[in-house]
């Protein structure tokens, strides 16, 4: 096996992790931004006002994207299992 093959596997793994993290974090960041703008416009400085919407959106993102992320992990795992014979030669 060549080092390029392992680099490609590592790149695929990092790309998958990036997609999975973004699917969870980005909606929470956007809601946090909207709540921060609302708080700045109304001069409401309540910490729990920004925490609860982000928590709810993060949980909804996990519910919505959970199946996709599980499928991605399963596909990657099966791909790694298929690579085993190539690694042994």
List keywords for this structure.
89 residues, mainly alpha, elongated
Distance between the amino and carboxyl termini: 8 Å
Mass-distribution shape = elongated
| Estimated radius of gyration | 20 Å
Q: Which band does the percent of strand residues land in?
A: under 5%
Helices and strands, in order, run as HH
**Helicity range:** over 70%
Can you count the beta strands? 0
Structural class: mainly alpha
Number of domains: 1
Summed over residues and divided by their number, the pLDDT gives a mean of 91
Give me the oligomer status: single chain
Q: What is the number of helices?
A: 2
| Sheet of most strands | none
Uncertain ranges: none
Structural description of this entry:
The chain has 89 residues and is an all-alpha fold. The protein has one domain (3-39, 47-88). It contains two helices and no strands. Helix 1 (3-42) runs antiparallel to helix 2. The chain is elongated. The relative contact order is 0.13.
Question: Would you summarize the structure shown here?
Answer:
This protein is mostly helical.
List strands and helices in order, with pairings.
Elements: H1 3-42, H2 47-88
């Amino acid at each position: 096996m060549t080092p390029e093959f392992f680099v490609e596997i590592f790149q695929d793994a990092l790309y998958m992790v990036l997609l999975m993290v973004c699917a969870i974090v980005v909606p929470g960041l956007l809601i946090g931004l909207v709540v921060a703008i609302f708080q700045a416009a109304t001069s409401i400085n309540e910490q729990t006002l920004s925490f609860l919407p982000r928590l709810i959106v993060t949980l909804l993102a996990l519910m919505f994207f959970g199946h996709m992320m599980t499928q991605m992990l399963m596909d990657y795992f099966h791909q790694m299992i298929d690579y085993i014979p190539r690694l042994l030669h």
